[in-house]
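Marked as duplicate of an earlier ticket. Keeping the data here for the record.
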Amino acid sequence: MNQGNILYIDLNKHSYKIENETSLFDEFLGGTAVATELLFRYGKPECSPYDAGSPIIFAIGPFNGMYPVATKTVSIFKSPLSGDLGESHAGGRMSMVMREANIDAVVITGKSPEPVYIVIKDDAVEFSPAKTFWGQSCAATERILKQAEGERGRKLSILRIGNAGERLSPMACVTVDGSRHFGRMGLGGVMGSKNLKAIVISGTKGVQIDDAKAYNEVYNELYDRIVNSKEMKKYHDLGTASNILPLSNIRGLPTRNFSQGSFESSRAISGEEFARTHLVQHTACGHCPCGCIHLALLRDEFKPYHYINAKVSYDYELIYSLGSTLSLSDPQDILRLIYFIEKQGWDAISIGVTLGWAADAYIRGIITDKDTNGLAISFGDASAFYETLQRCAKGENEFFSSLEKGSAYCSKKYGGEEFAIQYGGVEPGGYLTGENFIITSLLGVRHSHLDDFGYSLDQKILSHTQPIEDQVKAQVKDAQWRMILNSLVICLFGRGVYEEGIIVKGLNALGLDWNIEKLEKLAARTLQRKHEWKKLCGFDINLLAEEGVPERMYCVHSVTGVSDKENIKERVRHYRKFAEI
């Protein structure tokens, strides 16, 4: 298997070139490790994320398109939300078609003079005008491009931004194919700043396998574990929405802007309830037999006797951020918010948590009717939250325009920083489990609950207590190993299947010379390199330990009790020691 083709796209000149850099992939494997090195090469830490020279980097790894559940593509960029490292992962068909196009990474720089979309067909790139559909939603853009670029028998992956990205919202996402996303950290705003509305990718090339027998043995072993073992059954059945009830029962479900960890209406918005009354379809990313994508039916009356019937993707993070966080207990209300957010192209986690801050601020009188033009924003009022999103989309006034810039920006401007739930400018995933997850949120390099197993570790120590130092050591080791999983690039739902032994066998079957020791060295180095980039952007670990945790987190009861500031500072010291950062 040959790796190393990098597609360089210059939007200033509407030009491109492909260069083979096999040695880069030989040393850094692929995915997130390669993308990080490309960021050091082409990124400028001192520049604004919206500077024309700030690159957007996409990368896949050696397992993409080759083994089941290796379905993700990594994107790395400078984040407009945090001001430092931006990293996001998306499923769909993108990694599969990049493999078929024989492209291992894409580096996009510059800014187009006019709105464009890019069409990548194997080793050719076309620049097409997007002015006629600039202003269209994510859903409408996909329909337009399918009609314009679709050909019989040709598999496409379509990336696009919505109106939020065009407005340069720092929480704008990029939608991929049907309902997958580069969701976190504001990649949509970066694309918007480059006048890049969409990217269409397809490929017709194959991959040469020299040892078909060894490859088939590894493939069949992985496929059998994914389909027939218990490790991934949860994701196919109820999906991650199955977390709602268990977390609420142990005070780990963020509710009413993280003021408590249990939601009295958790059963009404549980994965079980969604499946029983709203689920209409399971689907999957390209080259995945799991089928973890859950689609529910939204039936919404937009005029008397006129209804929208739409399939809307849901999961735990969306139910948390737009359900329990806002104290909403009707699945149809949650789906209605998701549907609007999808069209606009916001990150649902960030916009949901920001709405939670807004409701809290309104209740306390920090935000007044003068700010909201008379709209009362209250927990439990779905209509008010929907109206808030509509006014944000219109940019009705300064307050509503501010909301799509995130809770850190809003609380600094209006007040209420003590209950603005953000870490380094980024709203967290939905886990009120304890201090280990706070460390995940503070120090995780992609600002995702999947940076490490902090939320699981919090739950584990309920029955198996460990010294703080041992907890942090395990957390760092897990964070490092995920650098390998994200360089392959697998969906982390499959992390229990992709163990060290099978990974080495899989790489060797593809003709790639890797062993455990070499992988572990790359894992530690990649995590260090990411923190090095963050530091160049002004990321200050010591300052975050002192001031980076919202004060509310030091008074709310979580799964493991009330968090302690001195413990957090101790954990940060241990993290720096074990990660050598």
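See parent ticket for discussion. The CA atoms of residues 222 and 498 lie 8 Å apart.
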